[in-house]
Amino acid sequence: MEQGLHKEVIRVHYKDTDQMGVVHHGNYVNLFEIGRTEWMRQAGIPYSKMEEMGLLLPVMDLTINYQKSAHYDDQVVIYTSVSNVSKVRIQFDYEARLLQEEQEATDLPSGELLAKGSTVHMWVNRDWKPARIDRLAPEVFAKLQAM
Question: Where is the Thioesterase domain (predicted)?
Fold first, then answer.
Protein backbone atom coordinates (compact mmCIF):
# COMPACT_ATOMS: atom_id res chain seq x y z
CA MET A 1 0.00 0.00 0.00
CA GLU A 2 1.15 3.52 -0.75
CA GLN A 3 1.61 6.58 1.44
CA GLY A 4 -1.59 8.44 2.22
CA LEU A 5 -2.92 5.33 3.92
CA HIS A 6 -6.23 5.72 5.74
CA LYS A 7 -7.65 3.26 8.25
CA GLU A 8 -11.33 2.88 9.08
CA VAL A 9 -12.53 0.44 11.76
CA ILE A 10 -16.02 -1.03 11.58
CA ARG A 11 -17.89 -3.82 13.31
CA VAL A 12 -19.66 -6.41 11.17
CA HIS A 13 -23.43 -6.02 11.44
CA TYR A 14 -25.81 -8.96 11.36
CA LYS A 15 -27.47 -7.61 8.20
CA ASP A 16 -24.17 -8.05 6.34
CA THR A 17 -23.93 -11.78 6.98
CA ASP A 18 -25.52 -14.86 5.47
CA GLN A 19 -27.27 -17.70 7.29
CA MET A 20 -23.90 -19.06 8.42
CA GLY A 21 -22.97 -15.76 10.10
CA VAL A 22 -20.30 -15.10 7.46
CA VAL A 23 -19.96 -11.74 5.73
CA HIS A 24 -21.44 -12.14 2.25
CA HIS A 25 -18.73 -11.78 -0.39
CA GLY A 26 -20.54 -8.84 -2.03
CA ASN A 27 -20.34 -6.82 1.17
CA TYR A 28 -16.59 -6.42 0.78
CA VAL A 29 -17.44 -3.97 -2.00
CA ASN A 30 -19.32 -1.95 0.65
CA LEU A 31 -16.28 -2.10 2.94
CA PHE A 32 -14.12 -0.78 0.10
CA GLU A 33 -16.64 2.01 -0.51
CA ILE A 34 -16.50 3.00 3.16
CA GLY A 35 -12.71 3.05 2.97
CA ARG A 36 -12.69 5.15 -0.20
CA THR A 37 -15.25 7.64 1.08
CA GLU A 38 -13.38 8.14 4.33
CA TRP A 39 -10.02 8.35 2.53
CA MET A 40 -11.44 11.20 0.43
CA ARG A 41 -12.87 12.93 3.51
CA GLN A 42 -9.54 12.62 5.38
CA ALA A 43 -7.75 14.09 2.34
CA GLY A 44 -10.03 17.13 2.52
CA ILE A 45 -11.89 16.31 -0.68
CA PRO A 46 -15.16 14.67 0.37
CA TYR A 47 -17.48 13.32 -2.30
CA SER A 48 -20.04 16.00 -1.46
CA LYS A 49 -17.50 18.70 -2.38
CA MET A 50 -16.67 16.96 -5.66
CA GLU A 51 -20.35 16.66 -6.53
CA GLU A 52 -20.88 20.37 -5.76
CA MET A 53 -18.12 21.05 -8.29
CA GLY A 54 -20.00 18.93 -10.85
CA LEU A 55 -17.56 16.00 -10.69
CA LEU A 56 -18.62 12.38 -10.33
CA LEU A 57 -16.38 9.36 -9.80
CA PRO A 58 -18.00 6.14 -11.10
CA VAL A 59 -16.28 2.77 -10.75
CA MET A 60 -14.77 1.42 -13.97
CA ASP A 61 -13.05 -1.64 -12.59
CA LEU A 62 -13.19 -3.66 -9.36
CA THR A 63 -10.96 -6.50 -8.22
CA ILE A 64 -11.20 -8.46 -4.98
CA ASN A 65 -9.01 -11.27 -3.75
CA TYR A 66 -10.61 -13.12 -0.83
CA GLN A 67 -8.37 -14.68 1.82
CA LYS A 68 -10.59 -15.44 4.81
CA SER A 69 -14.16 -14.80 5.94
CA ALA A 70 -15.25 -12.22 8.48
CA HIS A 71 -18.16 -13.07 10.77
CA TYR A 72 -20.93 -11.29 12.60
CA ASP A 73 -19.63 -8.90 15.29
CA ASP A 74 -16.01 -9.11 14.10
CA GLN A 75 -14.04 -5.91 14.18
CA VAL A 76 -12.62 -5.16 10.73
CA VAL A 77 -10.19 -2.44 9.70
CA ILE A 78 -10.17 -1.21 6.10
CA TYR A 79 -6.87 0.25 4.92
CA THR A 80 -7.23 2.45 1.83
CA SER A 81 -4.64 4.17 -0.31
CA VAL A 82 -4.31 5.66 -3.79
CA SER A 83 -1.82 3.96 -6.07
CA ASN A 84 -2.40 5.75 -9.38
CA VAL A 85 -3.66 9.23 -10.24
CA SER A 86 -4.00 10.66 -13.72
CA LYS A 87 -5.91 13.61 -15.12
CA VAL A 88 -8.99 11.43 -15.75
CA ARG A 89 -8.59 8.33 -13.55
CA ILE A 90 -7.76 7.32 -10.01
CA GLN A 91 -7.05 3.90 -8.49
CA PHE A 92 -7.74 3.03 -4.87
CA ASP A 93 -6.24 -0.02 -3.17
CA TYR A 94 -7.82 -1.71 -0.16
CA GLU A 95 -7.07 -4.27 2.50
CA ALA A 96 -9.79 -5.50 4.85
CA ARG A 97 -8.23 -7.02 7.97
CA LEU A 98 -9.61 -8.79 11.02
CA LEU A 99 -8.75 -7.32 14.40
CA GLN A 100 -8.75 -9.53 17.47
CA GLU A 101 -10.97 -8.34 20.32
CA GLU A 102 -8.18 -6.59 22.25
CA GLN A 103 -6.23 -5.52 19.17
CA GLU A 104 -6.04 -1.87 18.13
CA ALA A 105 -5.78 -0.82 14.51
CA THR A 106 -2.32 0.56 13.78
CA ASP A 107 -1.44 3.13 11.14
CA LEU A 108 0.24 0.42 9.07
CA PRO A 109 -1.74 -2.64 8.02
CA SER A 110 -2.27 -4.95 10.97
CA GLY A 111 -4.59 -7.83 11.69
CA GLU A 112 -5.29 -10.92 9.64
CA LEU A 113 -5.89 -10.25 5.94
CA LEU A 114 -9.49 -10.96 4.93
CA ALA A 115 -9.59 -9.47 1.43
CA LYS A 116 -7.64 -7.07 -0.69
CA GLY A 117 -8.51 -5.36 -3.90
CA SER A 118 -8.69 -2.21 -5.93
CA THR A 119 -11.11 0.02 -7.78
CA VAL A 120 -10.40 2.24 -10.78
CA HIS A 121 -12.60 5.31 -11.22
CA MET A 122 -12.97 7.89 -13.96
CA TRP A 123 -13.76 11.53 -13.35
CA VAL A 124 -16.88 12.55 -15.29
CA ASN A 125 -19.11 15.61 -15.33
CA ARG A 126 -22.84 15.60 -14.64
CA ASP A 127 -23.48 14.65 -18.28
CA TRP A 128 -21.29 11.57 -17.73
CA LYS A 129 -18.66 12.88 -20.13
CA PRO A 130 -14.99 12.38 -19.19
CA ALA A 131 -13.70 15.30 -17.14
CA ARG A 132 -10.08 16.36 -16.63
CA ILE A 133 -9.65 17.03 -12.95
CA ASP A 134 -6.47 19.03 -13.60
CA ARG A 135 -8.60 21.59 -15.47
CA LEU A 136 -11.83 21.51 -13.44
CA ALA A 137 -10.28 21.22 -9.98
CA PRO A 138 -6.52 21.85 -10.21
CA GLU A 139 -6.18 22.18 -6.42
CA VAL A 140 -7.75 18.74 -5.94
CA PHE A 141 -5.51 17.25 -8.63
CA ALA A 142 -2.42 18.75 -6.94
CA LYS A 143 -3.51 17.36 -3.57
CA LEU A 144 -4.08 13.88 -5.02
CA GLN A 145 -0.68 13.88 -6.74
CA ALA A 146 1.02 14.93 -3.50
CA MET A 147 -0.51 11.98 -1.64
Answer: 20-102
